[in-house]
From TrEMBL:
Intracellular or extracellular location(s): Cell membrane
Membrane topology: Lipid-anchor; GPI-anchor
UniProt protein name: Variant surface glycoprotein (VSG), putative
Any one GO CC term of the record: side of membrane
Domain Trypanosome variant surface glycoprotein B-type N-terminal: residue ranges: 5-140
Keywords: Cell membrane, Glycoprotein, GPI-anchor, Lipoprotein, Membrane, Signal
Predominant localisation class: membrane
Superkingdom, natural source: Eukaryota
Source lineage: Eukaryota, Discoba, Euglenozoa, Kinetoplastea, Metakinetoplastina
Summary of the function given for this chain in its UniProt record: VSG forms a coat on the surface of the parasite. The trypanosome evades the immune response of the host by expressing a series of antigenically distinct VSGs from an estimated 1000 VSG genes.
Length: 213
C-alpha cells in the first residue's frame, strides 16, 4: 500500500515516493526509503499498554462494508471495495480476518501476533520486576527486625563501656553489623565505617581492640 506509485496518493507519507515493486532488491530498497521518511524515536520505552493501544487504533482505522451476505474489510481507500493499487483503490484487503463465514483468527496475522506477544512479554517482565522488588524489600525488613531484637540500639557511652568491660568481640561484631547502613551510628559505636558518604555500606569491628584477649 505504501510503495505503489499509481494514483500518486501517498497513503503512508508525503515524504515517501512510491515505486513499482518487481523484485526482492526493489522491496529491500523501498523498505529502507519508507523507514527513512518516518521519525525514529529510539529513546522511547514502549509499554504493553502502548502496544495494545496501537493495535486498537489499527483496528479502528479499518473500513467495513457489507458485500452480499458477508463483509468486506480493508485498510485504506477504495471506490469499489477492491484493493488493486490503482487510483482510488490503494488499500489492504483484510476481509479474511473479519468475514462472518469461517474467518481467520487475527493471531494468524504475523505482524499482529508478534506485537501481541511483545505486549504479553513486557507485561510479564514488569510484573516479575515488581515481585522481585517486593521480595527484596520484605527480606530487608525481616533482617532489620531480627537484628533489632538481637541487638537493641545502644548509646555511644553504653557501647564503649561494653567494649572495655568485657572485650567480647562477638558481641561487638553484632553491634557493628546492626549499624551497617548508618555511618554516624557505626562510628559512634566505635566501629569502622566502610561505605563512603552515601549512607549505604558496611560497619566492621575494630579488631585491634580484641587482639590481646
Amino acid at each position: 500500500m505504501c510503495s505503489g506509485p499509481r494514483g500518486n496518493s501517498k497513503e503512508c507519507s508525503g515524504a515517501f515516493t512510491g515505486a513499482e515493486i518487481a523484485s526482492q532488491a526493489t522491496i529491500t530498497t523501498q523498505w529502507a526509503d519508507l523507514k527513512a521518511s518516518c521519525a525514529l524515536h529510539t529513546d522511547n520505552i514502549i509499554t504493553a499498554q502502548e502496544i495494545t493501544a496501537a493495535l486498537e487504533a489499527w483496528n479502528a482505522r479499518l473500513t467495513l462494508e457489507g458485500d452480499a451476505s458477508d463483509n468486506k474489510v480493508r485498510l485504506g481507500k477504495s471506490s469499489d471495495k477492491t484493493c488493486t493499487g490503482s487510483a482510488g483503490k490503494t488499500c489492504i484487503d483484510c476481509t479474511n480476518f473479519f468475514k462472518k463465514a469461517s474467518p481467520t483468527a487475527l493471531d494468524k496475522l504475523p505482524w499482529y501476533n508478534k506485537m501481541r506477544q511483545a505486549a504479553v512479554a513486557i507485561e510479564k517482565r514488569a510484573l516479575q520486576q515488581a515481585q522481585e522488588s517486593l521480595y527484596a524489600t520484605s527480606i530487608e525488613a525481616y533482617q532489620a527486625a531480627v537484628l533489632g531484637k538481637l541487638v537493641p540500639p545502644q548509646s555511644k557511652a553504653q557501647a564503649q563501656a561494653e567494649q572495655k568491660g568485657t572485650g567480647n568481640s562477638q558481641k561487638q561484631q553484632a553491634i557493628c553489623t546492626a549499624h551497617k547502613n548508618n555511618k554516624k551510628a557505626c562510628t559512634d559505636a566505635n566501629c569502622i565505617w566502610e561505605g563512603g558518604e552515601s549512607g549505604k555500606g558496611e560497619c566492621e569491628i575494630y579488631k585491634n581492640q580484641f587482639q590481646s584477649s
